[in-house]
Amino acid sequence: MLSFDYTKRVRYSETDKMGYLYYGNYASYYEIGRVETMRSVGLRYLDLEEEHKIMMPVVWMESKFLQAARYDDEIKINTSIAEMPTKIIQFDHVIKDSLNYVLNKGSVKLFFIDMTTGKRISLPPFMQKKLAPYFG
Questions:
Q1: Which domain, by its residues, includes 57?
Q2: What is the pLDDT of residues 89-135, one digit of tens each?
């Protein structure tokens, strides 16, 4: 299993009139978690697209709101991949506040597209090589 934590502070522009993190912004936080988790194992989204010509569009997302994050809160985005991907990669997210209370849980599934053909593909070998050490 691959797991990575990223710390972020809730910005004013991300909140609603009540000072809570606007619910629509959680998807952006999941993206931050995904990008930084991939980067932590040497897989940059920019390289995937520009060098390897692979896109990873979202096919499914769910989110469960448990507590509210507020303006200026420091939060931790924990992102994990529980299973070695094949045709789909699933990222699970847990967002916690500075006291370690769970504020939100979410999951996002993405698939792989070869940008030159426009067709779906399985997990590319170079990605499998980077991820393999985390899945025994």
A1: 2-129
A2: 999 999 999 999 999 999 999 999 999 999 999 999 999 999 999 99
- Angstrom distances, CA of residue 121 to CA of 39, 75, 98, 106, 117: 21, 35, 40, 25, 10
Residue 20 is classified by DSSP as B
Classify residue 136: in a domain, yes or no. Answer: no
Name the pTM for this structure.
0.95
**Cβ atoms 68, 8 nearer than 8 A:** no
Q: Answer whether residue 19 is part of any domain.
A: yes
129 residue type, one letter: K
Give me the CATH number covering residue 103: 3.10.129.10
Tell me, what's the pLDDT at 136? 83
Number of domain units in the chain: 1
Cα first-last separation, the chain: 9
DSSP-assigned letter for residue 1:
-
* 81 in any annotated domain: yes
> Is residue 114 within 8 Å of residue 69, measured between CB atoms?
no
Q: Write out the DSSP string of 82-115.
A: -S--SSEEEEEEEEE-TT--EEEEEEEEEEEEET
